[in-house]
């Protein structure tokens, strides 16, 4: 995992599936860019958007890429703030509900 700061690289990766990554593509704009931290592992990208409190985590991926995105999220998780708003692909909610691995430490606001 590394922090990616090259907008052209990010645009290329996210542009492979622009409907899935429409929010992230918008955050490449000069207005939003200073508030973004982009984590990358191979072709997978996770965005932490820091203009909100708490920050917003965006991690979207296709079901067939769940293992790759999951590996990136597992690496990113220890460096995240204590609280984040998380926008995740639906498969992640299934894993969270099952209390799987590193996601077991996460709690949805209002849940028990």
Structure description:
The chain is α+β, with helices and mostly antiparallel strands and 112 residues long. It has helices at residues 7-14, 22-26, 66-76, 90-97, and strands at residues 2-4, 36-41, 44-49, 56-59, 85-88. A 5-stranded mixed beta sheet has the order 1-2-3-4-5. Strand 3 (44-49) and strand 4 form a beta hairpin. The longest helix has 11 residues, at 66-76. The termini are far apart. The relative contact order is 0.14. The mean pLDDT is 86.
Ranges where pLDDT stays below 50 over 5 or more residues in a row are none
Reading the helices and strands in chain order gives: EHHEEEHEH
**What's the mean pLDDT score?**
86
User: What would the principal axes of the Cα set say about the shape?
Assistant: globular
The end-to-end span amounts to: 31 Å
Largest beta-sheet characterization: 5 strands, mixed
Summary, kept brief:
The chain is an alpha+beta fold.
Strand-helix topology:
Blueprint: E1 2-4, H1 7-14, H2 22-26, E2 36-41, E3 44-49, E4 56-59, H3 66-76, E5 85-88, H4 90-97
Give keywords.
112 residues; alpha+beta; 5-stranded mixed beta sheet; 5 strands; globular
């Amino acid at each position: 995992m590394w922090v990616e700061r090259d907008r052209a690289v990010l645009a290329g990766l996210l542009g492979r599936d622009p409907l899935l990554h429409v929010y992230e593509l918008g955050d490449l704009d000069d207005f939003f860019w200073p508030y973004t931290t982009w984590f990358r592992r191979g072709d997978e990208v996770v965005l932490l958007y820091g203009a909100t409190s708490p920050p917003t985590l965006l991690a979207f991926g296709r079901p067939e890429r769940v293992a790759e995105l999951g590996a990136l999220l597992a690496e990113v998780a220890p460096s995240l703030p204590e609280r984040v708003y998380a926008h995740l692909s639906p498969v992640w909610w299934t894993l969270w509900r099952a209390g799987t691995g590193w996601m077991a430490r996460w709690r949805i606001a209002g849940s028990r």
